From TrEMBL:
Name of the protein described by the UniProt record: ORC1-type DNA replication protein
Gene3D superfamilies: 1.10.8.60, P-loop containing nucleotide triphosphate hydrolases, Winged helix-like DNA-binding domain superfamily/Winged helix DNA-binding domain
Xref: InterPro entries: AAA_22, Cdc6_C, Cdc6_lid, ORC1/CDC6, Orc1/Cdc6_arc, P-loop_NTPase, WH-like_DNA-bd_sf, WH_DNA-bd_sf
GO molecular function annotations of the record: ATP binding; ATP hydrolysis activity
Family designation: Belongs to the CDC6/cdc18 family.
The Cdc6 C-terminal domain, residue ranges: 302-385
Organism: Halorhabdus tiamatea SARL4B
Amino acid sequence: MSRFQVSNEIFKDESVLFEDWVPEDLPERKRELDAIENALNPVLRSGVAPHNTFIYGKTGQGKTASIEYLLYEFTTAVEESDEVNVGVDVINYSCAQDTSSYTVVCNLVNKITGHNPNGHPKKKVFEELYSTIEEMDDIVIFVLDEIDTIGADDEILYELPRARANGYLEDTWASVIGISNDFDFQGKLSPKTKDTLCEEEIHFKPYSAPQLRSILQRRVEKAFHEDALSENVIPLAAALAAQDKGSARQAIRYLYKAGELASSDGSQLVTEQHVRDAEELIERQAIQKGIRDLTTQDTLTLVAVLSLEVDGDVPARTRAVYSEYTDICNVVDADSIAMRRVRDHLQDLAMIGIIDEHEHDSGVRGGTHYRWGLATDLGTTIEVLEQSPNRIKDITPIINQ
Ligand SMILES: Nc1ncnc2c1ncn2[C@@H]1O[C@H](COP(=O)(O)OP(=O)(O)OP(=O)(O)O)[C@@H](O)[C@H]1O
Ligand SMILES: [Mg+2]
């Protein structure tokens, strides 16, 4: 008998639960969609460039989905408009793999023309981008997703929206819609970039449990067979995701994984237990993925945070983490590094989502400083760390000291 005796009493159309499935409507984002629409309206009103717009919010908040949904409606409206007669080109580009404005410009030219100017001087590649844009429609909208990866090297975000004012473009307008999930990114932008890019600023706040419930409800109707879910499955998946990051992506993942667990059990019904198991599994996989590539110093820093977490001394200042860290280095007989470098390791751990970075305002004289705490589940993190081939064994006795 084949291993693949799969009966499918759970899913009606599983692809609806895939990451790239674009929802037909996002009623929970009405306010944000109205704001983006407002930024685009100069095109439909007068045939001129839309406002440069900066969209930000944590991961899984529907930023990319909203833009995709809205731009489809927008380009259709422009084509059908009797009011204005302009051509609009939309260039959708994710900067996730780029670390500088230079590579973004090269990749944009490559995306549009099929030729990559990489290697040429910066001035030249910008010129290539401008001459490429001049060949395009009247208005070119660049949707630059995940722009935070370019960090402080933000020239593109200033130059592109200013290209016409600075005389680099004559016949076309270029506008930028920048999307970021790094809350602090805006603060890192140079003042002139901020001024130019952030004509409109749109913040996507984390979804609440009721909002996640309605998002899941709409998916379920398409993805699952009728009566495949027991009553509390949607509220539970929504509540678990809301307690954590308020991410729709996470809520959908819980539901999908719960469906898969039910299906492989041979069950006809997805139960609350499937959702709880799904959450644990996904959390564990995320921690495993984060921990896989940690260096010894990353691991020692993380163990220091775990130890403070066990004692309830979190969120902790860098100095407190450092003090714990040096104690641990002594216990395991590892070389310790300077506090400044431990702070870098803390930031790296925050980037991969294992710890949280809380900005703390210590009043007029103290300025701001950071405090650190664990972002993942304590028990699971210790378990995963102990099972991973890191160089520190027996973490439990160390952190319980
Ligand atoms: N209001 C909503 N209605 C239906 N589906 C939604 C809604 N918001 C988000 N989603 C879905 O949740 C998932 C994550 O959304 P999306 O990719 O747009 O998040 P994001 O804010 O761009 O996150 P990131 O910053 O990680 O890129 C997608 O599958 C998307 O379709
Ligand atoms: Mg996105």
